[in-house]
């Protein structure tokens, strides 16, 4: 018999569906869900500059050597 054979696991055994349902309802009763924030629809959307990627010549050379079949 191994040393671990008689030891308990670090997690609880699965409960019955009825017990798990009761646990979920108990958590749901105590869970505080924040109210949604008010959104100012009149405000203009925030403009973000386009992303600029810097690719070195060496990286471009290596990438051009790859024969990727992406279809």
Task: Return the structural class.
Answer: mainly alpha
SS summary, helix count: 2
Q: N- to C-terminal separation?
A: 54 Å
| Helix coverage percent | 25-40%
Order of helices and strands: HH
* Mass-distribution shape: flat
Radius of gyration: 28 Å
The total count of strands amounts to 0
Question: What percentage of the residues does DSSP assign to strands (E)?
Answer: under 5%
Q: What is the arithmetic mean of pLDDT? A: 80
Sheet with most strands: none
Low-confidence stretches: none
Structural summary, described in words:
The protein has 71 residues and is mainly alpha-helical. Helix content is 31%, strand content 0%. The chain is built from two helices and no strands. It has helices at residues 17-30, 57-64. The model has no long low-confidence stretch (mean pLDDT 80).
Main attributes of the structure:
71 residues; mainly alpha; 2 helices; 0% strand
Brief sketch in words of this structure:
The chain is an all-alpha fold and 71 residues long.
Task: Spell out the blueprint of helices and strands.
Elements: H1 17-30, H2 57-64
């Amino acid at each position: 018999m191994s040393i671990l054979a008689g030891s308990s696991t670090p997690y609880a055994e699965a409960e019955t569906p009825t017990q798990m349902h009761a646990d979920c309802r108990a958590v749901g009763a105590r869970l505080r869900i924040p109210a949604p924030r008010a959104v100012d629809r009149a405000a203009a959307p925030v403009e973000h500059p386009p992303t600029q990627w810097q690719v070195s010549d060496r990286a471009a050379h290596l990438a051009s050597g790859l024969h990727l079949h992406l279809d």
